Amino acid sequence: MNPIKLLVITSLIVFTAGCATNSAKVNFDKNTEIETINYKTFAWLTNTKIMAAPVDINPVMKERVDKSIEQAFIAKGYQLVDNAENADFAISYTVGSRDKIKVNSYPATYNSGFGWGRGYYGGRGYYGTMSMGTETSVRQYTEGKLAIDVYDVKNHQPAWHGWATKRLSSEDKETPSATLNEIVIKVVNQFQ
């Protein structure tokens, strides 16, 4: 197989695989001065549960997020208590989304023509032409973000901050609960 064709096919396969894996990017930051290994109980930091609600938050979705976060911490073996003062740690979260634009610029299809015979200036031998341009694509998408914060009740200090960002697809918007639960579990699993 021609090396150029092989390179193009390989590039298309890698590009397609990269598009297919639209998973959440998860990360965290831990306060190293606070020991969290002995935590057993948790509570919500405030009655509203969310730290700063966006103006356009869907109240039904907020309830789903609240429940999902509670269930994820309970699944890790922590016990939910009503009063934050009686808990080992308190939790809160923030959510949001923003419209983003991604611009890609890459070489256009490689066009060339080579041959033998009379060249441009009338000489004999090898001659050829080659042209190459660029193609640019612009994509608009929505990126969602969920951040969960853990505060040490005794020290009144932040102990841990975990977050996830994900490009929201139409499938995510059609089945938000499944996507939400998956992301919450991934974030909470980073907490130790």
Automatic annotation (TrEMBL):
Protein name: DUF4136 domain-containing protein
Alphabetized UniProt keyword annotations: Signal
Signal sequence annotation: 1-20
Domain DUF4136: 26-191
One matching Pfam family: DUF4136
